[in-house]
Amino acid sequence: MREEATAFVPGHITGFFSAHHHDDPTKAGSRGAGITLTDGVEVTVSRATGDPAVVFDGQRVDIEPVLTVLETLEAPARVEATSPLPLGSGFGVSGATALGTALAANRVFERQLSYNELVTIAHGADVRAGTGLGDVVAQAHGGIPIRLEPGGPAHNSIDAIPSRARVEYVAFGELSTAEVITGDTDQLSQAGTESLSLVVDEPTLTSFMFASRRFAREAELLTADVRRALEDVAAVEGLAAMAMLGNTVFALGTGLSDAGYDPAVCGVHPAGAMLT
Fold first, then answer.
1. For 89-136, what is each residue's pLDDT tens digit?
2. pTM of this prediction?
């Protein structure tokens, strides 16, 4: 019986999406596309002597999807997560921590569940908490996934853009995912559906970036900081877009650097979440 286990889950930037709600959180989710990142979340789960605890970058926090995963797995555990990615800024950190917790707790507590079963638990927890609609299934896949249908593994359908890239990003602060995805999403979903059609017709990184910029504009999600950064990158002929949902800009290649910013730099993660 193991005392602890560690998992790595890539970060995930959503470029565009449409929201699909359902009473069953494992069937709810989103359609859209995004990029998984070599910058991610490392999650270590160990047996707890008292109540479950979640520590993120040394600070005790309440990440609702993580606590839901532990409850579902009947796993009284201490969860310690570290990441270069900020919470609440459009990198799928809540979903990544939930998925990493599911993978590691499954090993520590010998629950003997399959990968898809664990992804379903984490996805449902993320949806129920209002912290994400598609991050978990994308992080389980890796690469540049295109989510053709919403929901967990038993319900979704995923394709991908077969490419790799250097990725730069600058986070200007937090945005509330819950406020957006639990409100009126009709306009957002229409814009997301149109952007998805563009990328399905032409599954390239250039098409993805164009569709992502179009989505942010049509869904009226652009913040002043993001708008200014996108204009700066466009002025140096770079490719940039807004991370959904965060006050964050990401660019391919050296777009943000060329525009005078000091971005964090990573790449596309070639694989999905895994135990280490």
1. 999 999 999 999 999 999 999 999 999 999 999 999 999 999 999 999
2. 0.96
DSSP the chain: --SEEEEEEEEEEEEEEEEE--SSTTT-EEEEEEEEEEEEEEEEEEE-SSS-EEEETTEE---HHHHHHHHHTT--EEEEEE-SSPTTSSS-HHHHHHHHHHHHHHHHTT----HHHHHHHHHHHHHHHTS-SSHHHHHHH-SSEEEEE-SSTTT-EEEE-----EEEEEE-----HHHHHTS--HHHHHHHHHHHHHHHHS-SHHHHHHHHHHHHHHTT---HHHHHHHHHHHHTT--EEEPBTSSEEEEETTHHHHTT---EEEEB-SS--EE-
Which domains are assigned to the chain?
A: 4-159+270-275 (3.30.230.10), 163-266 (3.30.70.890)
Query: In angstroms, rounded to a whole number, what is the distance separating the alpha carbons of residues 69 and 243?
Result: 26
pLDDT tens track for 200-215: 999 999 999 999 999 9
Exposed e or buried b per residue across 251-267, where buried means at least 16 C-beta atoms within 10 angstroms of its C-beta: bbeebbbbbebebbebe
What is the b/e burial string over 85-96, where b = at least 16 CB atoms within 10 angstroms of the residue's CB? bbbbbbbbbbbb
Q: Which tokens in the block code for residue 191?
A: 């814009």
